[in-house]
Specification:
Nucleotidyltransferase, domain 5, alpha/beta, 47% helix, 15% strand, 5-stranded mixed β-sheet, 240 residues
Length: 240
């Protein structure tokens, strides 16, 4: 007689089946839905769960999804586009710094309460800690003065190679302006965030799902939603 499959440790003490939890998390991160929308969709399938529980699932498993996804992401190229966009947290504007390559693949992102030199530096440091991102050949930014200071400072300390060229040309950043929309429309559907920590964890999930949809995961097509679902289950140790 076959032994019952063991529940993955990451789901320990959760009262619902892992497949239901991941389904709710995936819906919330993938579509422009509120927590109550996800609650209603689950109710249609005979699953009764409160929207506050779904919030707790997202806070726990969205960062975990990004952590488990990163080793499977394809390498990016050496032409970077860097920009920041606004995210409202508890009634005030915060800044989501983002970097993509010339083909639109996400390199890194960083949510900051401040729009300053240190926040810009943090984005580049985080990006270059990941072995999937080679040293940039060129970095395109808008005309924000923080980048004009951050990039030379990081070149002096050896974080960015001195041969890297900074190109502050507004129109060349159209590709990242368009890429912001996938994240912003999900934020708008939720009418902002109530706490900075919750915002950061949720954005990590948005970005992870966005990378999957852009086809950045090895062997997983960006338009194959079913295969993406199976891959997500595999990341969390569930049966295919």
């Amino acid at each position: 007689m076959a032994k019952p499959r063991q529940r993955p440790l990451v789901f320990k003490w959760r009262h619902f089946e892992p497949q239901i939890i991941l389904c709710a998390v995936r819906w919330y991160l993938r579509f422009s839905l509120s927590y109550r929308d996800v609650q209603e969709l689950l109710a249609e399938r005979g699953v009764s769960v409160d929207h506050s529980t779904i919030w707790r699932w997202v806070q726990r498993f969205a960062p975990e999804l990004l952590f488990r996804l990163r080793p499977h992401v394809k390498p990016t190229n050496r032409s970077w586009r860097v920009d920041e966009t606004y995210v409202r947290v508890k009634g005030r504007w915060c800044y989501l710094y983002r970097a993509i390559d010339s083909r639109g693949a996400t390199i890194e992102f960083f949510l900051s309460a401040f729009r300053d030199l240190e926040a810009a530096k943090s984005l580049f440091r985080r990006a270059l800690r990941d072995g999937a991102h080679p040293q940039p050949r060129v970095i395109n930014t808008d005309l924000a003065p923080t980048y004009a200071s951050a990039i030379p400072d990081l070149q002096r300390t050896g974080v960015i190679r001195r041969r890297c060229r900074h190109r502050p040309v507004q129109y060349l950043n159209n590709i990242i302006e368009q890429d912001h929309r996938a994240i912003k429309k999900r934020v708008h559907a939720k009418q902002g965030f109530r706490a900075f920590g919750a915002a950061r964890q949720t954005v990590e999930g948005y970005e992870a799902m966005h990378m999957m949809r852009k086809g950045q995961v090895r062997w997983i097509a960006g338009d194959d939603a079913r295969l993406q679902m199976k891959f997500m289950h595999k990341l969390f140790g569930l049966a295919a």
